[in-house]
């Protein structure tokens, strides 16, 4: 992201200027991407400040966007005092619910994964086999 809570107004103005160069249908996507970048880099407070500044001059389209809901859902999950397993499950559910948007835009999917990873909420990786020969044979059998 290009800003934080301290300069949310300038951050929002920069996004509006960039979004104006694209298609109107992409503005929600641009705003969501930047909200998630801000969440990743600055946390929930910075994201909330950015979105509030962005909404000062925006129409209601963004306020009613499912992508706005995704950004705020992720901010709630990241800022929650719940334990990691519950928050990790919430990220998994959000990913499932928003799968169509995430499949259409790989950058959005990567940002969502980066937010989860930054806050220790990425799904655990499957354990590698202890025996390297077993791993090699397993890979050969899958091919």
TrEMBL record:
Gene3D superfamilies: Tetratricopeptide repeat domain. It comes from the Eukaryota. It comes from Phaeomonas parva. This is Uncharacterized protein. InterPro entries: TPR-like_helical_dom_sf (IPR011990).
């Amino acid at each position: 992201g290009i800003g934080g809570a301290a300069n949310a107004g300038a951050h929002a103005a920069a996004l509006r200027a960039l979004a104006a160069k694209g298609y109107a249908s992409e503005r929600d996507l641009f705003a969501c991407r930047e909200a998630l970048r801000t969440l990743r880099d600055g946390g929930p407070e910075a994201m909330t400040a950015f979105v509030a500044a962005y909404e000062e001059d925006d129409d209601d389209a963004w306020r009613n966007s499912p992508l706005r809901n995704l950004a705020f859902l992720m901010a709630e999950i990241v800022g929650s005092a719940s334990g990691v397993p519950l928050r990790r499950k919430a990220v998994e559910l959000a990913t499932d619910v928003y799968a169509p948007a995430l499949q259409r835009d790989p950058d959005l999917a990567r940002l969502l994964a980066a937010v989860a990873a930054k806050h220790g909420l990425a799904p655990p990786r499957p354990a590698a086999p202890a025996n390297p020969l077993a791993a090699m044979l397993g890979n050969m059998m899958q091919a």
